[in-house]
Design a protein that fits this description.
It is a single chain. The chain is of the alpha/beta class. The chain folds into 2 domains: 155 residues, 3-Layer(aba) Sandwich (Rossmann fold), CATH 3.40.50.300; 65 residues, no CATH class. The radius of gyration is 17 Å and the shape is globular. 31% of the residues lie in helices and 26% in strands. The strands form 2 sheets. Strands 6-7-8-3-9-10 form a 6-stranded mixed beta sheet, sandwiched between helices. It has 7 helices and 10 strands. The chain starts with 9 loop residues before the first strand and ends with a strand. 34% of the residues are buried.
Amino acid sequence: MVRNRPRGENIIRFDNVGLRYGLGPEVLQDVSFALPAGSFHFLTGPSGAGKSSLLRLMYLGLRPTRGRVMLFDRDIAQTQRYELPALRRRIGVVFQDFRLIDHLSALDNVALPLRVRGVKENEVQKHVPELLSWVGLADQLQSKPPTLSGGQKQRVAIARAVIGRPDLLLADEPTGNVDDHIAMRLLYLFEELNKLGTTILIATHSEQLVGRFSHHPRLHIEHGTVMQVS
C-alpha cells in the first residue's frame, strides 16, 4: 500500500553508481539521479543500453559494483539481507519475461501480492476480478499462463504489479506485446496509480509512446550512462 510520503521527497537516489558483471567492462558508469516521490518518468534508450540492468538495481535484483543506491531513505549497501524482502514488497515490477506462476490461474497470480500481505479473501475476490476486467481479461480469470497469449500474459503481469498500490512501480517494456489500444489503456492505468501517490518509472524504446505523454524529465540511457532529458 502506498505510504503518505511528501511529494518531492526522493524515493530513490543513485550516486555515482557503476555496475559490471563479473570481470567484464562496466555496463553502467557513474550513474547519478533521483526520483521524487509521486513522480512519473520514462526511461528510454536503445536495446542493450542498460535499461534492464538499471531496473534490476532499483528493485534490488542486483547490488552496484560501486557508488550508492538509496531506496526509501535506506542505503542499500548498509541494509541487512533480512530487511530486503520488506523493501521489495513496496515495489511493483513488470518484467519483460512476465515471471508468472504457471500452475496458478490469472486471478491467483494477480492475487498473490495481496495474499502475501494478509489481505482478507473477500477483498481479494472483489478487487482482483475488477482489475483483470479493466485490462480486458474478464473472461480469463481461471486461465493459467501456458494457455494465454503473450499480450494476455503481459496484462496479467501488469495487474499483479499494480494490485497492491506499491510505493514504486518499475515497468520494463510493459506495452511491448499489446496493440496500441491496449497500450494506451495500460498507460492510463499507470497514470491513475501515479495520482494515488505511486512513483512510476517505465522503460521503453518507443519514442512514439513517450511522445504521447507529457511526463518530464525522462531518463535516457546510452553507452552505460544516464542523463535527464526535459
